[in-house]
């Protein structure tokens, strides 16, 4: 339609055109006034809900100029690709797209590794899927999206159901109004264009994998339903589980019930005017969750017609002076940092197999902890960490330089933080919420992240708040005094002695000055090595060089009195456009202890030995 206006028309077509145009405008105005898409909601434990999967092949249209959504005057179209319009003979206007003939993309999955032509593609891509559905009366139907990188729009049967920004957190769009019995279709537009006011922003050191990168499904819920809940062991009262269950659309006088059959524990609580039922109940004989004994319990949560069967473990985490206390006992976090890069096939990780392979390697390394960087990883990974007994550092994607003085950017970071915490708050594995990574020491930055830290503490007072800070140097003294440290429970620091600065041996003469009497985790250190490349231990890019850096790092770090953990950078090589060195990096960050094809490098064994022999950190 847009094109017709721009170009002069043949006289014969004008009268038909005016009539059709008038009808179309009427429909659009009607649609606009009758329906504004509600904001998506966060559902805790959505992956524990029975669901109709929409995973599989979706039709796809690559639309670099976003012509499918925006008119030539860049106004949002009323009859864009989301209408999934099928051209009919005699139409007085051309239809210049057809999903039924379009190539497919798999969901879940990034588009970059599915089609060579899309490896570098950044921009909008349209997805379409037909499905049949029989909605039941008195129910809500939600379109659950595990993640869509970065900005995404969703329509069901041509009706807009939601819009979302943020590439690494789950969201749920209410489609009850739009879905009908029988044949339906869903259209999504996903745009992974990097923008200055996004989070993360322009230059992340990882591949900006675009698309519907995690599972998509339909979840059906009763009229009043449990949308969020939090259950955790009290830090102050032995044998007490506390928390809450929030019920959307709760009827006055309604109750929520929590049962842990294996512990013969059951409790009910009134749902308050705010929809929350507050819980505080005693349990006997609970086996606490630890990395060595990752005990999980079936937990039945019910309210009205709704119920959810959760699988949770119970433990406490807190600090005591410079110690991190798991279940009241000091613990040393022997870890490694991990990107959500799929082993072997590469691309965004999403499957159980991806999670088990990555975390299996971490266990083999002797880890009891992993830093999941630099964005919230998916529930599949977190469930595997619960099961396999790995403590988790989970991070909000506030990475390097953001527009810290832009309130819109703060609102996006707050939204992503809310989604991260409200989705994943019941994983015993998660002990640390990280607010940021390697941000510049400016007043705007400090204020921005202090706001996030306060928000996180308000949302979840049962966990520890951290961030990965940069350190400054005076001669061969490293100084940790970033003012942001004040707002943190646990200090994370990144340092690359022996790689970005100095030589492996430089670590031997490095002193540390820490301004905070708090537990400290070295959240990153490491060196690049091409798997299979061998040479002298001072020859960069060889396995020997990487191993040499580790051999000098570990004793140096052991000199830091409040060192309570480490997560070297990183477990596995991962794709990054910032790494163009041909024959060595080939667009992979090669600081993995394992290559993307599963080859263990010499440094893997150096760290494995130190973790197995517990020669790093204070013994547990
Ligand atoms: C940084 C950053 C990582 C990056 C790493 C590197 O510290 O946090 O995202 O990949 O260094 O340079 O390899």
Note the beta-strand portion. Answer: 25-35%
As a percent range, the share of helical residues equals: 10-25%
Distance between the termini: 69 Å
Q: Could you list the spans in which at least 5 consecutive residues all have pLDDT below 50?
A: 1-12
- Report the radius of gyration as a whole number of Å: 26 Å
Helix run count: 8
Instruction: List ligands, each type once.
Output: alpha-D-glucopyranuronic acid
What is the residue-averaged pLDDT? 94
Main sheet strand line-up: 21-22-23-24-25-28-30-31
Overview of the molecule:
18% of the residues lie in helices and 30% in strands. The protein has 620 residues and is an alpha/beta fold. The strands form eight sheets. The chain has an eight-stranded parallel beta barrel, surrounded by four helices. The protein has a six-stranded antiparallel beta sheet with strand order 3-2-4-9-6-7, with no helix packed on it. Helix 3 packs across helix 4 and helix 5 packs parallel to helix 6. The N terminus is likely disordered. Alpha-D-glucopyranuronic acid binds next to loops.
């Amino acid at each position: 339609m847009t094109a017709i206006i721009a170009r002069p028309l043949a006289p014969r077509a004008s009268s038909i055109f005016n009539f059709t145009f008038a009808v179309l405008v009427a429909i659009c105005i009607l649609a606009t006034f009758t329906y504004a898409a509600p904001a998506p909601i966060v559902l805790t434990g959505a992956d524990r809900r029975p669901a109709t999967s929409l995973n599989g092949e979706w039709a796809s249209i690559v639309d670099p100029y976003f012509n499918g959504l925006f008119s030539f005057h860049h106004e949002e179209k009323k009859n864009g690709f989301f209408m999934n319009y099928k051209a009919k003979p005699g139409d007085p206007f051309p239809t210049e797209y057809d999903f039924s003939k379009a190539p497919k993309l798999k969901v879940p999955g990034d588009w970059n590794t599915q089609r060579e032509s899309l490896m570098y593609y950044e921009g909008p891509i349209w997805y379409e899927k037909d499905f049949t559905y029989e909605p039941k009366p008195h129910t809500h139907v939600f379109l659950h999206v595990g993640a869509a990188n970065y900005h995404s729009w969703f329509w069901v049967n041509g009706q807009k159901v939601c819009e979302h920004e943020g590439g690494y957190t789950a969201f749920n769009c209410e489609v009850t109004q739009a879905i009908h019995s029988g044949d339906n279709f869903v259209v999504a537009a996903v745009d992974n264009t990097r923008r200055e006011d996004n989070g993360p922003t322009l230059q992340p050191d990882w591949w900006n994998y675009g698309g519907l990168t995690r599972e998509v499904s339909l979840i059906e819920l009763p009229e009043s339903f449990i949308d969020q809940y939090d259950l955790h062991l009290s830090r102050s009262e032995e044998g007490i589980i506390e928390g809450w269950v929030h019920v959307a659309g709760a009827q006055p006088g309604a109750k929520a019930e929590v049962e842990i059959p294996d512990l013969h524990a059951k409790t009910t609580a009134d749902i308050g005017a705010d929809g929350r039922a507050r819980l505080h109940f005693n349990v006997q004989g609970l086996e606490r969750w630890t990395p060595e004994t990752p005990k999980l319990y079936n937990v039945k949560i019910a309210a009205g017609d709704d119920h959810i069967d959760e699988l949770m473990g119970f433990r406490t985490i807190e600090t005591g002076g410079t110690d991190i206390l798991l279940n009241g006992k000091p613990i040393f976090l022997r870890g490694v940092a991990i990107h959500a890069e799929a082993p072997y096939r590469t691309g965004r990780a999403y499957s159980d197999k991806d999670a088990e392979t990555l975390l299996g390697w971490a266990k083999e390394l002797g880890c009891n902890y992993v830093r999941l960087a630099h964005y919230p990883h998916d529930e599949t990974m977190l469930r595997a960490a619960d099961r396999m007994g790995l403590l988790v550092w989970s991070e909000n994607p506030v990475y390097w330089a953001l527009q810290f003085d832009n309130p819109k950017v703060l609102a996006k970071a707050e939204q992503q933080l809310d989604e991260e915490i409200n989705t994943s708050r019941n994983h015993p594995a998660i002990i640390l919420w990280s607010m940021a990574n390697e941000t510049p020491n400016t007043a705007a930055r400090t204020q921005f992240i202090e706001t996030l830290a306060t928000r996180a503490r308000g949302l979840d007072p049962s966990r520890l708040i951290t961030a990965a800070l940069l350190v400054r140097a005076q001669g061969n003294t490293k100084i940790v005094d970033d003012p942001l440290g004040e707002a943190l429970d646990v200090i994370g620091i990144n340092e690359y002695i022996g790689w970005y600065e100095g030589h492996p041996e430089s670590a031997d003469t490095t002193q540390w000055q820490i301004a905070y009497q708090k537990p400290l985790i070295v959240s990153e250190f490491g060196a690049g090595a091409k798997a299979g490349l061998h040479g002298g231990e001072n020859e960069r890019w060889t396995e020997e060089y990487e191993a040499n850096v580790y051999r000098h790092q570990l004793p140096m770090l052991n000199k830091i009195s409040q060192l309570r953990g480490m997560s070297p950078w990183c477990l596995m090589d991962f794709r990054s456009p910032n790494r163009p060195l041909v024959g060595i990096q080939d667009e992979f960050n090669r600081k993995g202890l394992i290559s993307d094809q599963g080859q263990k490098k010499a440094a893997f064994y150096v760290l494995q030995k130190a973790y197995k022999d517990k020669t790093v950190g204070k013994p547990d």
